[in-house]
Amino acid sequence: MLGLMQDRPLLISSLLTHAETYHRENTIVSAPCEGGIVRSSWGETALRARQGAQALARLGVNPGDRVATLAWNTHRHLELYFAVPGMGAVLHTVNPRLFAEQLDYILNHGAAGVLAFDLPFLDLVDSLAPKLTHLRHKVVLTDAAHMPDGRDDLLCYETLLAAESGDLVWPAFDERTASGLCYTSGTTGDPKGVLYSHRSTVLHAFLCCQADGLHLSRADSTLLAVPLFHVNAWGIPYASAMCGAKVVLPGPKLDGQSLYELARAEECTFSLGVPTVWIGLFKYLEDAGIDPALLPFQRLLIGGSAAPRALLQRFHDAGIHAFQAWGMSETSPVATVATLLPHHRELPRDQQIDVLARQGRAMFGVELRIVGEDGADLPHDGSVTGELMVRGPWVTSGYYGGVGGDVLDGEGWFATGDVARIDSEGFVTLTDRSKDVIKSGGEWISSIELENAALGHPAVEAAAVVGVAHERWQERPLMLVIRKPGGSATAQDILDFLAGKVVGWWLPDDVVFVDNLPLTATGKLDKKVLRKQYINHLITAETGA
Fold this sequence. Notes:
Layout: H1 12-22, E1 27-30, E2 38-41, H2 42-58, E3 66-70, H3 75-86, E4 90-93, H4 100-110, E5 114-117, H5 122-128, E6 137-140, E7 154-156, H6 157-162, E8 178-183, E9 193-197, H7 198-209, E10 221-224, H8 236-243, E11 246-249, H9 256-265, E12 270-273, H10 275-288, E13 299-302, H11 309-317, E14 321-327, E15 334-337, H12 349-356, E16 361-362, E17 367-371, E18 386-391, E19 414-422, E20 428-433, E21 438-440, E22 443-445, H13 447-454, E23 460-470, E24 474-483, H14 491-498, E25 510-513, H15 527-534, H16 537-543
Parallel strand pairs: 1-11, 3-4, 3-5, 4-8, 5-6, 6-7, 10-11, 10-12, 12-13, 13-14, 24-25
Antiparallel strand pairs: 1-2, 8-9, 14-15, 15-16, 17-18, 18-19, 19-20, 21-22, 23-24
Helix pairs in contact: 1-2, 1-8, 2-3, 7-8, 9-10, 11-12
């Protein structure tokens, strides 16, 4: 017997309609590339999204077509987040920080007929366009006053919108229809496309609004420091429409000073971004002599890569509840969230931070397990590590275009490539990416735990650990360290500091001080570059070559 309940499709357009109806006056703040601040609302965003959908239809965009973007966090990009999927097309956000060869591959593979981009990317688009075989229209996300002179091959976004009435009723269709396309960073092989659906996106938005999720609500003013081109900005645009939260979009300025000043001006209660963003924020505060307690945030999410415990500590010392979540492009991305359980609230703050330094527990809908090299399940007792497997309604079932073939096992589990342990309460602790784990004499060493321990040293600004060749043990850890300005720590100082904080045989065989560390396009340490550069460091040192 079936239940007698209405069956309405879960569509992204319904999120915007809800925001327009019940939260229409709540604010959207944008710092566009042209400068200044643009203040709008959910009501205005809804109208302009409908105008955008009409304009795209006039350009020949049909349901299922891809519309690509190369853009920062602005009100115009946010409008496309709803206009494109709302009309049944697919929003293909592209990371402009990628190498030209990767951009060429991604845009051609996605086959978008329309590319919307911010004006600072004009030279990049001009260099790419001759190779983009499917591209028909190039739309500059600006107004007529800022359009380049003498370019009849470019369309102006504001001019396109002004020609439309916005009198549009969003179409209804199957909730499993594709809504968004994001490509992985391509650290191994070509980037792979993850194709989200309306259903998966709306379900993920519910997660973000859960009290034990990201706790997003109508009361929040959210500084979106994670780019809109990075995994749907971790679902926050859609979750913000669901609950009517105020959204603050910093545009291209993600430096510490700009984020601090915007957060203060807009009284931001919540923010989220990768560790490098927050490390840069604290560096600005330190250099400027500003007390971190002046930051307005109540809560702050760190994601994208494992959050150093020392970074969490700095936020908590400033009275800000910093926590982390784990996920990936293939999980929409949030899968686990670090939330204190009731009995943790009685612990001293240092022990609470130890809990928040884990990657958290699975949210409803997400299933997790860890497996050994033989594929057998490993216990969730916090004592063993294995490859993390995941499945759920917002986890990918395959890559766009069939790239990579079958990615699920016979029971529907997706292998994440992360190495982790899970304790008896369900908390996940990442110990490495499978490609980054260091195998010394047949035993695993966690580069993440070594890095996080080193970041507790007062002279260490950043640290990276990679496995390099060793004649006896096959691989041994090498640590690369950036000193803080004025820091004078020696290699032995770092090793002495680590002693007692990690297993003795994990201690790096050498510590090398560097001026900078390579980052991927999403702000993570690019360890493949370091491994290639330093692979023979220990062998060379031993032989004196």
